[in-house]
Amino acid sequence: MAIENKEPLLSVKNLKTYFKTEDGLVKAVNGISFNLYPGETLAIVGESGSGKSVCSLSIMRLLDQNGFISEGEILYKGKDIVKISEAEMRTVRGKEIAMIFQEPMTALNPVYTIGFQIIEAIKLHLKMNEKDAKDRAVDLLRKVGIPEPEKRVDQYPHELSGGMRQRAMIAMALSCNPSILIADEPTTALDVTIQAQILELMKELQKELGMAIIFITHDLGVVAEMSDRAIVMYGGEVVERGDITTVFKNPMNPYTWGLMSSIPRIDKDVDVLWTIPGVVPSPLNFPKGCKFSNRCFLADEKCSKENPELISIEGEHSSRCWHIDKLVAEIKKVRAGEN
User: Fold this and answer.
1) Is the pTM of this model over 0.70?
2) Residue 4 half-sphere exposure, CB side, CA atoms within 13 Å?
């Protein structure tokens, strides 16, 4: 998707989101920046603990009481929504920017019907009466592929299957025709057949409604299927970003390369999959230099002492690494050995 000469719909600048804990200050998101353009799908990728979901909750201003935005701007259509009042934010949340949560059973209220929860948002933001709002809720359930929507609208979340609950969440998110849809791991708990249906549904609805999507996931197959551009996060920072083809074909960060190499491939006969050693360190105890240095096969003394800047490689493609040249050489060796 070409983005030249387009104004960003959403612009996140140097966002820092921290949490106060008994053990100290957790820097969950530590200075990330990106733009989201009208009609595009931007993937935010990384392991659990990389800061993906905290980034989305910061945009929605749905942080826990011990969480706060320490620094940075979140510009939606030019307005910094970090600085607006909670009352004003409620007019943005749900209407302008909507979110699909990872687990619908915890996101949906179990004591209210599906219809009530969708109707509530419609009445709040679109000022419809009860009858028109219910008719719209039924139409939305039908649009997202729920059978017998006239019946399902009066059922409770526990009466629906996992796939139908996720579709109901999508219907609720789309109820006010948002400009931006944030999808946080929307298919993680679903089987592969339902996952494919949900992804196809999201693409169809995006095409129909023209909304931009932020797709948060650790599933790189989903990223390749859904996205125009990708941001790779690690340790609360962006370590690589670029258009989806470039990031997949020419990764310029050891972490991104590790993620790509860990994907099982049906065209390669291998006995053991590549793995990234170790685990994501606690945000209370990150390495002093590069956050990935204690797991990286290219790390040296400089990496353990100095954190590299995110530098531009070509066009939109950027990476945070001291040893990009060494990585390129290593990748060439590996690919030469595969041929």
Assistant:
1) yes
2) 2
